[in-house]
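Kindly draft a polypeptide, keeping tokens residue-aligned:

***
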Amino acid sequence: MIRAWRTVRVLPPLLLPALLLTGCGTEKASAGTGPGGGTSTAAADPAELASRAKALGIAPELVYVTESPGYTLAQQSVGVSGDDGFSAAYWSQRTGTQFELRVDRITFTAGTCAEQPVGGSDASAGRTKCTRDGDDWYRTAGSWHGYAVPKQGYTILLSGSGVPRDTLREAALAVHRPSAAELDGLLPPAPAPGATTSEPVRRGDLPPNGDGAPDNSVPCEGC
């Protein structure tokens, strides 16, 4: 299912709470892990990270996580961005706001920064405004704003609407490669070699014999 998400997406604010409630325990996936989180920060095994990421069509080198007080990874939001990029959303139950972490093979310079949209902004938001903030770019477009963190050959993007700038800046500073514990809550294990998909759902209205057409006859008492 995730492989079909080939474009950048930002989950609507009203959708994330529902997703978190339907996934038992997934709201605990990222909070408290990583640097300063108080749990294991052992680096994820590169081979394991690669197998899990590639199974979803994501380039392993583009998988990153972050942390920000009060915000939790929505595991159901994790998926592909563009051709082989990475995308995930972090949600705050207290404020009902969210921000997106996206990693794509794009390059930001003083000349190209303004050409890239910010999060879910569209043409009505006008041209993106870019300001240097240390080695990163702070970007705004309409109600959307965020940070672009350039890397070698790709860029890490954090964006949100209704999220304080300090929160996004802190999340940008906290971006890191996943630890072993974080990987378990981020990407599902890769299918075993040769594994097949689960059996199709069996329909009770299909007769055991014949051409397999549904049995839609109506019982007739006393006929």
Q: What stands out?
A: The chain is about 15% helix and 20% strand. The CA atoms of residues 129 and 153 lie 22 Å apart.
